[in-house]
Amino acid sequence: MNGFVICTDFKDTALINIRRTFFFSLFSIPVSTACIIFFYMNFSLGNAVEMKWRMGIILCHVALVITMFVLGGLSYFLKKRTEQSTLMCIVQYLAVVSIFSIAIALVTIDQLVTASITPFLISCIIIGMLFLLKPTVSVYLYGIAFLGYYFALALTQTNQAILLSNRVNGLIAVALGYFLSILLWNTSVLNLQQKQQISEHQIDFIEKNRELERLAYYDQLTGAYNRRKFEELLTREISMMSRYKYSACIVILDIDRFKKINDAYGHPVGDKIIQEVAAVLKNNIRNTDVLSRWGGDEFLILLSHTSVDEGEKIAEKLRQFVDKTSIQIKDAEIMITASFGVAALTGNEEYSYEEAYKNADSALYQAKQNGRNRVEVFVVG
Questions:
Q1: Beta strand 375-377 pairing with 338-345
Q2: Which tens digit of pLDDT belongs to each residue from 294-317?
Q3: 249 in the Ramachandran plot: left (φ > 0), alpha (ψ -120 to 50) or beta?
Q4: Is the pLDDT at 1 greater than 60, yes or no?
Q5: Do 341 and 360 form a contact (C-beta atoms < 8 A)?
Q6: In this predicted structure, which of 109-113, 193-197, 248-252 has the lowest mean pLDDT?
Q7: Contact call for residues 322 and 280 (beta carbons, < 8 A)
Q8: What was the pLDDT predicted at 203?
Q9: 1 vs 259 pLDDT, higher one
Q10: What is the mean pLDDT of residues 101-110?
Q11: Which among 75, 126, 188, 335 is least surrounded, fewest beta carbons within 10 Å?
């Protein structure tokens, strides 16, 4: 949990603070500009001390406008990013320090004509409610701000009773701001943690669904579709053929003399051969074709939008690719061949795919009878 809090301090909260800095700049720039205009229009009123006070206030608001214009501009570009950066961390803390500094300057200048500490109180509340700051960081920022406020007041406030009162009131303002900062941090971090947990649960849910789908639809050894999924896709293909009137065919193949290889070298070698053949088939069929491991060393391929003649050519190419495949077992090299049977698939939904499979299997049997490592096509009639 502590690791996550540290992470959010440097990542999620930095992104949030950058966005809030941008929106605060949109608010503070026109407000400060209005203050500059208002004080400038009344600049010549009063005595020399009051004119000095007005000039100081104007300069502080000018500084705030310039600072927020720069920080707002940086925030505008940074808020579009999704990843934390060092510049984000710098900008967010510059915004906090700038708000505190200008508030202290305004309060110090105000002491020339009034005992008000309103700007400092407002800055403490703004920082506490606007910026997500880790409590250990926040206590330093508020502590430094109070020290600056404490000593700056004495530069213009000579009445010791008012000075003491303002320092005490400033301490209360800092305590209030720090309390708001802790409250905001705890609430926000809890929300971020909940969001993170929800996100993790969603990812876990998606991954589990994918795993369930893989177990339900894919053969674990080869990664090809299993029998259940192939039957589903084949049924859908027949329905599409019935509607759009196009040709398709199925190809059935098995590995020649696989049982002898399995008995001679063992099941692990047999599994390796099945995987090699599956890889050859997957790498050399079209994107529109569907490969399934039907069971044992037997594979089925659905060739959509393909006539029997075209299917025979495709099967022959696949046979040649398999014929070039071999695996090395210690000092022995096992050459791999396969026999293929091709049969038409019709769009007649009453003509079940079991019949097409029976025909393709009959062609495969003929290929075995004719010497193996060959392609045979089922001829109707």
A1: parallel
A2: 989 999 999 999 999 999 999 999
A3: beta
A4: no
A5: yes
A6: 193-197
A7: yes
A8: 77
A9: 259
A10: 95
A11: 335
Distance CA 322, CA 258 (A): 14
The residue to which tokens 């193996």 are assigned: 372
In this structure, which amino acid lies at residue 373? N
Name the pTM for this structure.
0.56
Q: Record the tokens describing residue 196, joined without a space.
A: 């993170």
Can you read off the two tokens belonging to residue 265?
A: 């070298």
Question: Could you tell me which of 352, 78, 325, 366 has the C-alpha nearest to residue 242?
Answer: 352
